[in-house]
Amino acid sequence: MNLMISSKEYDFHSLIKVAEMAGLAGTVSFHQAGEDYMISFPDGENTPALVADFRARLRGLENNIWNY
Hints:
It contains 2 helices and 3 strands, in the order E-H-E-E-H. The protein is an alpha+beta fold. The chain has a 3-stranded antiparallel β-sheet with strand order 1-3-2, with no helix packed on it. A hairpin with a 2-residue loop joins strand 2 and strand 3. The mean pLDDT is 90.
C-alpha cells in the first residue's frame, strides 16, 4: 500500500522521524514522487492500521511543533 504526502505539508526529515517513532524504520520505503513523497508500506492484514497510525503520528508531530 502506498501513501502520497505533499512536500508542501511535510519535509522528508519529518517523515523519517515519524517512521522511527512508529517503529517502521526499515519497514517502509520512501520514494520521491515529483516534488512530493510516496511512502510504501508492506502488504499485510494490518497495513491499513499501520497507515492510519502513521497519519495520526504525523498530525501529532505537527500539533506538537505548532504548540511551542
